[in-house]
Amino acid sequence: MSGQYISELERHLKEGKFVYTGELEPEKTTDISETIEMARELKGYVVACNVTDNPRACAYISSVVASYLIQKEAGMEVIFQLTCRDRNRLALTSELLGAYALGIRNVLALTGDHTTLGDNPQAKPVFDLDSAQLIYMIRKMVDEKTDLAGNPIHHPPKFIVGGVANPNAEPLEAEILKFARKVKAGMQFCQTQVTFDIEKTKAFLKEVERFEVPVILGIFPLKSYGIAEFFDKNVPGCAVPRHLLESLREMDKGITDKQKRKQKIDELNIEFFGEFCRELRKTTRLAGLHVMAVGYTRIIPPLIEVIGR
Amino acid sequence: MIVTREKPLDEILGYIWPFTKILIAGCDGCVHPPRGLREAKTYALMIEMAGKAKGKQFECIPVTVAKQCDNNIVYTSLQSYINEVDAVLSLACGVGVQVIVEVFPDIPVFPAQNTVFMGSQPKEGAIFYEKCRACGECLLGYTGGICPVTRCAKSLLNGPCGGQVNGKCEVGGWVRDCAWYLIYQRLKKLGRLDLFEEFRPPRDQRIASSPREVGGLVR
Amino acid sequence: MGEGEYGMRVNENLCGGCGICVSICPYEAITLDEEKQRAVLDLEKCMFCGLCASSCPSGAIEVAYYELDELCDYVKKAVDAGKRVLAITCRGSTPPEEELKRMLEAHSINADEAAVVTVPCAGRVRMEFLLKSYTLGVEKAILIPCEADYCRFKRGSTASVKRVALLRSLLATLGIGEDWLVLAQSARRAEVDAYRCQGCGRCALTCPYEAITINPPGIAEVDASKCMGCGLCLAVCPAFAISIKGFEYDEISQRIRSEASKYVSAKTREKPAILLLCCQWSEYTALDEAREGKALDNVCVVELPCASRVDSLHIIEALSLGFDGVLVVACRKDECKFEDGNLKAEERISALKEFLSQVGLADRVEIAFVSPKYLSEFRDSLSKFVEKISSLSP
After folding, report:
1. Nearest CB neighbour to B48, from listed C313, C320, C358
2. Does residue A13 sit at the B interface (CB-CB below 8 Å)?
3. Which domain holds residue B35?
4. Which domain holds residue A252?
5. Residue A152 in contact with partner chain B when CB distance is under 8 A
6. Which end of chain C is less packed: N or C, by CB atoms within 10 Å?
7. Cβ contact (<8 Å) for B197 and A181?
């Protein structure tokens, strides 16, 4: 890749360039050509794409395989998501070794949603490790060149390890202390939960500044009123601002011309998130944006244009 | 206490169907809700009635044992009955059933309960809550006396996870308290958030791997 | 009386509006109509203790039970039969026969000579009745209300104690001698058999009065000053280690067993055998008759201190002995004399029904909520239950 850096993501973060990352969600299928197509569309706009690992505890195609295919077919660098729900430390270790062998360099360590919330709720949840411990284990593999138990690894891997945080979390203090723990464990970058609340986000970013870990903030452009309403109702602790919901509802009802409606909704998103992100870039040390726009990739280019590189 | 739930009567009848004289052994030990003499008598009558309805005449002897997990007590409490009966139905936890098997290896012994967990019942209601998982490596000293291994759905040592909102846990639909939220509140109150901030490395799961053995008290 | 469904009414022609009833009612169920100068009774609030009736100077409050004439008749017959001592006890604290005998003997009364009148509250006995008893030839009277803190109607026993003092001085003035009337007090409280107690703490957990503690090394202890004798602890004790005189597990169990042969063997197919487990405050007549040995039609009546004493095991025993149905009779929802004992009984019965559904007997157990102040309520509930049981295949 790029000289002293092991990935483009790392290079961007280290050089202080504002980073955009995207999200790809492989599904319950053996053919991920659609996902690869989406990755192609994002190319040139985002530095890397997260590839989810059985999100919402649903059994999908292996995250490491999808990651490999996306990098190979679309040429899109991935942030390989890895959860602790489905694998004990042995499986996690071998997954990571395999991932590295397949050219994967960025890892996002997650605890994972509980099995009971997924599509196989009868399953036994593993959680041998939690996300902080997974970060710790990966750093041990990279820095000490051993597995968790201390056994040496021949040809040890090199990864950039990220963790997640939630700017909406209450109480914020607990979230910050948790952040501190992950930093102690070795977290090198952080991607956050989606947020719409500028004040909470500012407060969060201010609090974590002292750790000097780059934070990539999650945003969620709203493609339609339906999606916005669903998100608002089903993601507790993360409300969609009323005025956004209202405007979307009016557009949904009021504008019959499909093309025109799309245009108006795009404008609304660009206006809201443009302002939201510019304000954050002005007032905080935000390192980048993670744009969750699965099925709404067309919004990314104009959005990047208003927010700036 | 060890919390148990009663098995469906049909399952119990299935176990004892080939037998006629049944010793119903209650336990006055830590099993909860209590399964002492009252429960033994209750089961005796229920089994006899159910048997009658299906055309079988059971003969049940209800007794109780101070502690079914104690080989000695089991021997002295049950030995006078054991030759009189064809099978034993134990109302104790899984330990009790196995101790009777160990003490009286020649007689079939069946469980009447499903042993569910170690827990307690607050004054207010009849619900038992799981409190301890016997993980073998007690963390309560670091977590303000609230067990994350048992009370966090994911047994996280570095919680809470993203499934916590307003102090409630996503698992089960935002009803249960998030253990880590409770831990945070408690440690904050105690002025010990330094403990909360500490990173807890992965556990040695061997300590909690069954079967486990522990030496007796020799002091 | 006897007409209409209420068991109590104010006779407006007799009421002088003095307001004594208003001030004595422990439940604030009586108000004074300022305009008419008449007492007005709120039957929803009324707990039917009868304190108002017994303190009304003009006899304007009429109660359907324990009327003066009826009681006098009883005394007359007793005197004729040679029972010249009148003992008035309260339903809540009347000890079992042997215990009562000892109690009377302590006051130098030969139990064989005593005519016992048990009323739901000693406070409802009019002084007039005692004086009439004297004229009818009663040679000595003993009033045994509950201990003051044990009274089911808050002020019943306090009122009784005061009345006895008053009456005694009156008797002295009349030259009859105050010793004609003596006072004793009684209470039936929970007692622990330390040998049987396993220290599980269930009683302490469920006692509504926090009267039970578990002492080291794990034995329950009842604080008599707090225990109200509802019997809830007896029903939950897994080891039968708690008793209240007359309501012990064994006592009731033996009663059901011995009666079973009578009712079950005598039953014809048209008449189901019914066991009635009845709170002593929810129904008066049927319980009094049962005390006197008069049986309802193929219905075995067992009196409980409170519906919360109802024991699942007694019900299971009754069904296994061949009773066709068990009806638990509890007080109406707001009228429990304890702490929601009726609701606790309801909870227990619904859990029991679920348990019994495994042997197909859930339909044979019901709980009814009735009040003696609605005269036909108990009989209606009973006949409805009998009807239901009759409709089930045996």
Report:
1. C320
2. no
3. 2-117
4. 8-307
5. no
6. C
7. yes
CB–CB contact C359 B49 (8 Å): yes
How far is residue A284 from each of residues A207, A241, B217, C136, C268, measured CA to CA in Å?
10, 21, 60, 101, 90
Read off the pLDDT band of A1 (50, 70, 90): very low
Q: Looking at the domain assignment, is residue B209 inside a domain?
A: no
Percent of chain A with pLDDT over 70: 99
The residue of A137, A144, A178, A232 whose CB has the most chain B CBs within 10 angstroms, and thus the best one to mutate to test that interface, is A178
Query: pLDDT digit string (tens) for B27-41?
Result: 999 998 899 999 999
**Rounded Cα–Cα distance for residues C229 and C190 (Å):** 6
- Find all residues with CB under 8 Å of B186, minimum gap 6, and list them: B144, B145, B146
Q: Is B32 on the interface with C (CB under 8 A)?
A: yes
Quick one: B102 and B10 in the same domain? yes
> Across the interface, do A128 and B202 touch by the CB < 8 Å criterion?
yes
Q: Is there a single domain that holds both residue B16 and residue B89?
A: yes
Q: What is the value of pTM for the model shown? A: 0.87
Chains contacting C (3+ CB pairs below 8 angstroms):
B
- Give the whole-angstrom CA distance, residue A11 versus residue A7: 6
CATH of the domain at C236: 3.30.70.20
- The distance of A185 to chain B (nearest Cα, Å) reads 7
Residues of chain C with pLDDT below 50 are: 1-4
DSSP A20: E
Partners of residue B37 in chain C, C-beta under 8 Å: 238-240
Q: How far is B27 from chain C (nearest CA, A)?
A: 10
Number of domains in chain A: 1
The whole-chain average pLDDT of chain A stands at: 95
Does residue B28 share a domain with residue B101?
Answer: yes
Whether A51 maps to a domain, the answer reads yes
Same domain membership, residue B157 and residue B69: no
Same domain, residue pair B109 and B197: no
- Three-class SS state of A19: strand
Tally the domains of chain B. Answer: 2
CB B81 within 8 A of CB B23: yes
Cβ–Cβ below 8 Å for B202 and A136: yes
Interface residues of chain C, partner chain B, Cβ below 8 Å: 198, 200, 202, 205, 237-240, 312-313, 316-317, 319-320, 355, 358-361
- B20 and B99 in a common domain: yes
C296 and C269, same domain (yes or no): yes
Residue B186: closest CA among chain A residues belongs to which residue? A174
Size of interface B-C (CB pairs under 8 A): 57
In a shared domain, residues C230 and C264:
no
Flag whether pLDDT at A300 surpasses 70: yes
Q: Which residues pair with B120 in a beta bridge?
A: B129
C143 with C274, same domain: the answer is no
Cβ of C198 and B46 within 8 Å? no
* C78 belongs to a structural domain: yes
pLDDT tens digits for A49-78? Answer: 999 999 999 999 999 999 999 999 999 999
Q: Identify which of A56, A64, A149, A72 has the alpha carbon closest to the alpha carbon of residue A108.
A: A64
pLDDT score recorded for residue C384: 94
Nearest neighbour of C316 by CB, restricted to B32, B37, B42: B42
C261-301 pLDDT per residue, tens: 888 876 555 688 999 999 999 998 888 888 777 767 789 99
* C and A interact (at least 3 Cβ pairs within 8 A): no
Mark whether C272 and C383 lie in a shared domain: yes
DSSP A197-242: -HHHHHHHHHHHGGGT--EEEEE-----HHHHHHHHHHSTT-PPPH
**Is the same domain home to B20 and B112?**
yes
Residue B104 lies in a domain: yes
Q: Please report the ipTM that was assigned to this predicted complex.
A: 0.90
- Residues C282, C206, single domain; the answer is no
Q: How many domains does chain C have?
A: 4
Chains touching A (3+ CB pairs < 8 Å):
B
3-state secondary structure C171-210: HHHCCCCHHHEEECCECCCCEECCCCCCCCCHHHHHCCCC
Per-residue pLDDT of A144-202, as tens digits, reads 999 999 999 999 999 999 999 999 998 999 999 999 999 999 999 999 999 999 999 99
Residue C189 lies in a domain: no
